[in-house]
Design a protein that fits this description.
The chain is 34% helix and 18% strand. The chain is an alpha/beta fold and 388 residues long. The protein folds into 3 domains: 97 residues, no CATH class; 238 residues, TIM Barrel (Alpha-Beta Barrel), CATH 3.20.20.70; 30 residues, no CATH class. The strands form 2 sheets. Strands 1-2-3-4-5-6-7-8-9 form a 9-stranded mixed sheet. The relative contact order is 0.10. The structure holds iron/sulfur cluster. Iron/sulfur cluster (SF4) binds next to loops.
Length: 388
Amino acid sequence: MSLNALVEDTDSLVDAAREAVCRIFGETYDPQRWGDWHWQSRHRLTRLTHFEQLLQLTPAERRGLELAPGKFAVSVTPHFAALMNPHDPDCPIRRQVVPRQEELVVGEGDMVDPCGEDHHSPLPGLVHRYPDRVLLLALDTCAAYCRYCTRSRLVAQGHLEPLARRLDRIVSYLEEHTEVRDVLLSGGDPLLFSDERLDALLARLRRIPHLEFLRIGSRVPCFLPQRITPELVALLRRHRVWLSLHFSHPRELTREVAAACDLLADGGIPLGSQTVLLRGVNDAAATLKALFHGLLKMRVRPYYLYQCDPVVGTSHLRTSVATGLQIVSQLRGHTTGYAVPTYVVDAPGGGGKIPLQPETVSACEDGVWTLVNWEGKRFTYQDPAYDV
Ligand code: SF4
């Protein structure tokens, strides 16, 4: 089969998947409408009746879809839904966003607020855990809802007041706290704001002279790449914003996602990506290597691999730390350094991020370190004499 025939074959499969999603809403697939982020937002799959038209649901998924909405919202954009394998309940895309009965299981050590954010919150929607950085929870909605969300206690729950009512107090706090130099806007997903509202928010923060660094944490380029428009890129560039993206699996790196990342990178927006290690989704070195290589090709630097936080109802999606360490040891030295993110655990109870390393340091005696390289060979490194 020629390469052209293969591409056409793939295109027709993509079109068929999109057609199936549109049929749920009594519409036909129209590429122009599909590319409109407002249309995508209005046509999100949120209910059992949506999912059962698209997927061969397992009893655990059906039960999860019946019970989850009272606990944590369900929503999937048409773009992401079209990536799900209707016949494979173990599809890594499906596992991330379709709830399962297992979400009702409360495992030992599960926590509602595993990162202890609520204890470090001087104002609603502001977390001040590290001296020079704050997390500003701009809104509580996302394009789609990840079943392992650290902030499931908050996101989509409707408890967070609209930002317009909180912003004055937040700005006053930031003006008073001159030690804060770095603001991470997250939520929820700040890229769901309209351009006008996002522009106004960033402009307000940019007027605080000691804020050096503004970041936005977003899964929109993955769930809703149609949102990345030239106008949005121009406003992010104007406010010199960095983006922390979130990808889980190489199958998420579609043409639309690549185009969105190209727009952002060409627009001068620095791009990093965080990945959560998830059982049955990406807990294999080959999967993560393909993801990280794909991200580098799109000029996105993978920078954190997170051990999944022990959020209530997520034990079926979590791996052991030993699995994570083993995967990282299969990556480190075996590929480009840029393609190996730092593996971290966000210490339960609010201890912050702690990097986890595979055993590279085997011993140290009188300032002589024995180190193990990627081939398992031993080398020594001598400390300088004045430090011994
Ligand atoms: S996009 Fe982020 S905040 Fe939203 S549900 Fe997923 S993990 Fe949670």
